[in-house]
Recover the amino acids of this structure.
C-alpha cells in the first residue's frame, strides 16, 4: 500500500490541501502544476478572485490543522444583502445562529497558504511549470511537459491523483482511452468579474459582512468583500439573447445596461467600460463522470471528477471534503489494503454526494437571481426558520444543511430538503411576506416529527 511516491497533478485548492494531508501520513508526494510558482508570478486571470468558504471546507481545514493560518484571511458574510432595482436593500440572513455565516476568502491567498504548509514537509516536492498531457495506461506512465524547457517526459504512475480542475487532462486521457465516460454540460450563462474600489477614505463601499446580490430574474450581479476593502463583483448573464454578454459590445452599451439594471452599483464600479473590456468572460458548467479511478493507478478528485456551477458556493468546499475522505480512507486501510480498494471506496462514498450538490447548485442559481425576491420564497423561508427553532434536530433549512452542517452528507441534505419542501407547501398559509406567518403549530409538529428523523 505505502508506495514510495504519489503523483499529484494540479496544485490548486484541492491538490495543495491533499499534498499536505498525504505528507502528514508519511507518503512522498510529487506535485506537478502547470502554472508558474505563485510566489514569482502574478495571479492567473479569469478565475474567481475570492470564494465563499463554509462549514464543510472549514472542517477539512481544521482536520488539516490549517485553520489558525486561514482564519485571519476570512471575512464573515452573515447573509445575502439584496439590492432591489429601486435601490432599496434588505438582508436575508443565511442562518439564525451567530456561527451560521459563510466567509469570503481570496483564492490566491488560500492556495498559497496551503502550498506553503505542504512544502514545509520534506517529503513534498512542488514542481511548477509542469503541465500534464495525460496518462498512458498501457505503459503505466504519466505524461508531462516542462513548459519552460519545452520538453516532454514520462514518469511511472505510482499512483497518480488528478486534481487538475474542471478541464482535467487526466480525465480527458482516460475518456479517450475508453476507461470512463464524462459529460461536460456548459451553462448557457457566463460570468465576468469586476472590481469595486474602496471609498475615498479607504473604507468598504458596501456593507462588508454580507454577500451582495442584485437579482434581476434572468441574470444577477453579486459582490464579495476582500481584505483590502475592495469587493469582487461578478456578473452572471446569458451568453446570447436580448440581455446577454453578446448584446454588450461597447462601453456605452455596458454602462447603459448597468444604469438600467444595477443603478446603485454603477457609481462604485469605476471605469466600468474599461474593466468590462479587459476582464475575461468565464465559462460555467457541470462535469459528470461515471468512473473516477483506474485500477489503483489513477484517481480523479475535486473539480477534475465533478466540477459544478458556483451558485451554492460549494465547489471548493466539496473538493476539500474529498481530500479529507481520501486521507481518512488511507488511514483506515492501515497498510493492509490497496490503492485500488481505497479509490473504489472513495468513489462509492463521494459520487452520490457530488451529484447531489451539482443539482442543488444549479437550483440555487434560480433562487439567487430570481426567487429570492419572491414573497412566497420569503414567507417559506420564515416558516423554515420557525420550524427549525421548534425542531432543531429534525427540520434544518436546506441551505443551512449544505452550508453549516458538514455532518449531513450532501445527498442526505438533498433528500431531507425535498421532504421539507413538501411540508412547507402543506403549511404555507399565504399572505403578507412581511409578517411572521401564522402556522397551525400542532399540524406542523405532526408533519415534521412524522416525516423527519432526528439528526444524530
Ligand atoms: C466564478 C466561480 C466562483 C466560485 N465560487 C466558489 C465559492 O464561492 N465557493 C466554493 O466552494 N467554490 C467556488 N467555486 C468553485 C471552486 O473554484 C472549485 O470547485 C475549486 O477550485 C476546485 O478545486 P480543484 O483543486 O479541484 O480545482 P482548481 O482549483 O481549478 O485547481 C486545478 C489546478 O490544476 C492545475 N492544472 C490544470 N490543468 C493542469 C495540467 N494539465 N497539468 C498540471 N496542472 C494543471 C491548475 O493550474 C490549477 O492549479 C467557484 C468557481 C468559479 C468558476
Amino acid at each position: 500500500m505505502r508506495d514510495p511516491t504519489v503523483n499529484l497533478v494540479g496544485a490548486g485548492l484541492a491538490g495543495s490541501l491533499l499534498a499536505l494531508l498525504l505528507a502528514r501520513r508519511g507518503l512522498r508526494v510529487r506535485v506537478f502544476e502547470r502554472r508558474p510558482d505563485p510566489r514569482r508570478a502574478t495571479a492567473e486571470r479569469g478565475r474567481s478572485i475570492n470564494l465563499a468558504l463554509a462549514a464543510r471546507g472549514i472542517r477539512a481545514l481544521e482536520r488539516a490543522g490549517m485553520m489558525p493560518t486561514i482564519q485571519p484571511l476570512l471575512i464573515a458574510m452573515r447573509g445575502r444583502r439584496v439590492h432591489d432595482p429601486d435601490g432599496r436593500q434588505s438582508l436575508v440572513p443565511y442562518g439564525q445562529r451567530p456561527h451560521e455565516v459563510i466567509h469570503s476568502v481570496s483564492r490566491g491567498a488560500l492556495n498559497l497558504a496551503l502550498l506553503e504548509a505542504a512544502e514545509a514537509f520534506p517529503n513534498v516536492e512542488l514542481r511548477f511549470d509542469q503541465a500534464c498531457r495525460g496518462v498512458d495506461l498501457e505503459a503505466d506512465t504519466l505524461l508531462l511537459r516542462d513548459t519552460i524547457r519545452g520538453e516532454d517526459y514520462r514518469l511511472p504512475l505510482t499512483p497518480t491523483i488528478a486534481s487538475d480542475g474542471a478541464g482535467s487532462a487526466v480525465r480527458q486521457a482516460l475518456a479517450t482511452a475508453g476507461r470512463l465516460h464524462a459529460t461536460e454540460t456548459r451553462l448557457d450563462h457566463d460570468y465576468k468579474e469586476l472590481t469595486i474600489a474602496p471609498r475615498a477614505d479607504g473604507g468598504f463601499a458596501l456593507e462588508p459582512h454580507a454577500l451582495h446580490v442584485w437579482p434581476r430574474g434572468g441574470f444577477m450581479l453579486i459582490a464579495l468583500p476582500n481584505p483590502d476593502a475592495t469587493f469582487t463583483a461578478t456578473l452572471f448573464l446569458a451568453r446570447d439573447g436580448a440581455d446577454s454578454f453578446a448584446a454588450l459590445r461597447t462601453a456605452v452599451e455596458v454602462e447603459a445596461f448597468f444604469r438600467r439594471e444595477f443603478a446603485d452599483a454603477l457609481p462604485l464600479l469605476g471605469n466600468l467600460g474599461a474593466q468590462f473590456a479587459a476582464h475575461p468572460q468565464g465559462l460555467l458548467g457541470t462535469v459528470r463522470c461515471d468512473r473516477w479511478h483506474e485500477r489503483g493507478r489513477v484517481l480523479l478528485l475535486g473539480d477534475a471528477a465533478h466540477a459544478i456551477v458556483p451558485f451554492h458556493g460549494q465547489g471548493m468546499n466539496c473538493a476539500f471534503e474529498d481530500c479529507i475522505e481520501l486521507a481518512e480512507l488511507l488511514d483506515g486501510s492501515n497498510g493492509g489494503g490497496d490503492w485500488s480498494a481505497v479509490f473504489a471506496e472513495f468513489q462509492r462514498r463521494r459520487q452520490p454526494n457530488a451529484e447531489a450538490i451539482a443539482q442543488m447548485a444549479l437550483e440555487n442559481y434560480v433562487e439567487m437571481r430570481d426567487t429570492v425576491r419572491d414573497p412566497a420564497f420569503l414567507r417559506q423561508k420564515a416558516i423554515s426558520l420557525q420550524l427549525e427553532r421548534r425542531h432543531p434536530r429534525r427540520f434544518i433549512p436546506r441551505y443551512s444543511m449544505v452550508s453549516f452542517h458538514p455532518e449531513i452528507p450532501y445527498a442526505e441534505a438533498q433528500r431531507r430538503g425535498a421532504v421539507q419542501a413538501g411540508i412547507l407547501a402543506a403549511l404555507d398559509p399565504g399572505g403578507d411576506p412581511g409578517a411572521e406567518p401564522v402556522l397551525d403549530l400542532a399540524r406542523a409538529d405532526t408533519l415534521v416529527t412524522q416525516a423527519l428523523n432526528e439528526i444524530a
About this structure: DSSP finds 14 helices and 21 strands in the chain. Residues 285 and 309 are 5 Å apart (CA to CA). The mean pLDDT is 94. The two ends are 34 Å apart (CA to CA).
